[in-house]
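Q: What does the assembled structure look like for these inputs?
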Amino acid sequence: MIDRILEYLSENQDVYLNAVLTHIGISVAVVTIGILIAVPLGVLCAKFLKLSQPVQGLFNILRLIPSLAILIVMMPVIGTGLAPAIFALTLLAFPAILINTSIGFTGISPSVIEAARGMGMSPRRILFTVEFPLAFPMIITGIRTAAVEVIASAALAAYIGAGGLGELIIIGLQVPSTAILLVGGVSVAILSIAADVILAITQKRLTRHLWLN
Amino acid sequence: MISVSKTALEFKNIRKRFSHTEADAVSDVSITVNEGDFITILGTSGSGKTTLLKMVNRIYESTSGDIYFYGENIKKLKVEDYRRKIGYVIQQIGLFPHMTVADNIATVPKILRWSKERINARVEELLELVGLPGESYRKRYPSQLSGGQQQRIGLARAMAADPQVMLMDEPFGAIDAITRQNLQDELIRIQKKLNKTILFVTHDIHEAFKLGNKVIIMDQGKVQQYDTPFNILFHPANEFVAQLVASENIINRLKILKAETAVQPLTRTPDDTDIYIGKDEFLDSVLSKFFESGMKTIIVTDADSKPVGEIAWDQFNQLLRSKDSGSPTGSQNRISEKVGIHAAIHS
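A:
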């Protein structure tokens, strides 16, 4: 089996590399968009608690809908290819980032904020030098969850022609070839684990004060 | 020589009603705080003491009335700039857990864009002042400090940009008794050294009388009495204050009154055989000096160890025995008048 996997890889180097890069590209794009939208929304939810329930409820419902279903439902609306894939996967990335950001902010001790205000720090300064650093461990936990989910689900994007490692899985099923199937599946798994480890290291480095005692 | 002290803070008819509440949290407070005063605000929870304090740095905005900071209406000042001129210390301390001790203290200097050298020098100076040498504490995180040490850093952080006025909201309330005493003593020392104007909220009567050169007693949102510890003990303004201090027996009174409150003019020139005591020492120390030495008078000295007066045993004795008219001049206090009136009505 290993011989056949290696044989496939050496004969289809370009296809494989292309698939990996596309997969990473889609995932990075999705998580980045997710962070840019869900983090500010999470902050808003934490600041205006009335907003929190409807917004979080909405995204939780969206998360319950299978990604494949979203991909297929969206096909008539925004067609096939990269854009709808990124759109559907972004919906998947939202809830974890949004909820964790919100929890990270509401979990900050009010006395820390009061002390900051009392010293004459502006709301903007408090947000960037106090609140974000303190909420960071929770935010990055959300990003880790989202990244792993997105990388795994990005395999489905191949069904609407977005490319990526999902294509190898589809080919493996069609041929059928266990070797190709394994190359696709294991690669997705390795990417997921790698993303989680990299983010975990980042998290630990940036939150040194939590690991002192 | 009479020195005219500047007015640091002036409250004019300050009132605060929180939304969805039936009564004023603070109602119609008008008081003046002079520069260099150490004012303690004493009251139970719900008395309005913390609300009053937090209106000074506009954590709460007053519903009506005005507060003047060195003559300027604080509502007309840019709130952040104004707050940087006021030190703020709270019971929960509120250090930034993700910053080192040095970075915590440097918060306001950084906002004010001081140079790195100036900030570093200031951090060292403050750590020295609060008794935590920079060498071993500068790079620690708050979680690596005890509660007492954290509050010392809280104090250092509040003083970083050398504010003239300090607001302290039960700063030692969550700290064990022994550490609290040390912190109280150090705060007295720091206040003497730097001549800060301090407003200090507490629910502990001993803390209030020990620290404050004047005490504000609050109940139900109103100032019941604003006076020196001596006058509050011996001339309570009303029934509420009278009951509050009634529980203070002689021993407790000795612990919260300073030697200067009992001092009389010198009747002779002191010499080497005399016993001396600082004017800021408490009367329990005076009492033990009387017993230890067997002297009839103790000489009271000022901060420079210069004799400024004396306490004679007979007067001292009389002062403590007289509960109703304990002032050195022997004047009648208002509570006995009130009791008299009550007696008249009920008879």
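Chain A has a mean pLDDT of 88.
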